[in-house]
Amino acid sequence: MSDATSFSASTFSAHAWGRDLPTYEAIRTMPFNDALADGTLSLERFRHYMVQDAHYLIAFGRGLAIAAAKADDPDGLVQFAEAAKVAVVVERSLHADFFETFGIGPEEFSRTEMSPVCHHYSNFLIATAYAEPYPVVLAALLPCFWIYAEIGRDILGRAARPNPYDAWIDTYAGEEFHEAVRAVIATTDRAASGASPDVLARMHVAYRRATQLEWMFWDSAWRLADWPV
């Protein structure tokens, strides 16, 4: 694992990472990420993934904005308001570049519905953000940051170069993204340190569910999943 996981063993993040490590390992070794690393991932699968990820980022940005509103100090408000901006503006500009590179027009994106998994994950984040206290909201948002950082670094270490997906790999393996992830981990740990046992338990449930949904999201793209009826 990268230095993003180098936190005290007594923290929420360390406990959550250890408890859900089998799911992370399942993500790391799943066919989608193996094929992305060796450059053999089909264009059809990557296009499916990118379109669904662009849909997801809208919900992720809303979840971050709600986290900012619920923040228990001004630093958290600024941190997650800025993160919401990054999710919606900066990362969607990356998607725009990918869309152009891989031939996805705005009409195709607008007429492509959320897949079942993208719909589930998006609604899980929004519902959690509205209904749960600040520490639980952070726990639900954390896996998207942390797992992408770890997968990015893992793929970078074994990627075939040149790779048609070099830009994706470099984005999530880059130090700028990892610095932001370390900050989110630290904020989540601070929120957890003052949480009641009940809230801590709910944090672990939210973290685990989001981690499972990360696996399902990549698996859905691998299977080119759509609504069955």
From TrEMBL:
Keywords: Hydrolase, Thiamine biosynthesis. Its EC number is 3.5.99.2. The keyword Hydrolase applies. GO terms for biological process: thiamine biosynthetic process; thiamine diphosphate biosynthetic process. InterPro entries: Haem_Oase-like_multi-hlx, Thiaminase-2/PQQC, Thiaminase_II, Thiamine_Salvage_TenA. It comes from the Bacteria. Residues 31-223 form the Thiaminase-2/PQQC domain. Belongs to the TenA family. This is Aminopyrimidine aminohydrolase. GO terms for cellular component: cytosol. It catalyses: thiamine + H2O = 5-(2-hydroxyethyl)-4-methylthiazole + 4-amino-5-hydroxymethyl-2-methylpyrimidine + H(+); 4-amino-5-aminomethyl-2-methylpyrimidine + H2O = 4-amino-5-hydroxymethyl-2-methylpyrimidine + NH4(+). GO terms for molecular function: thiaminase activity.
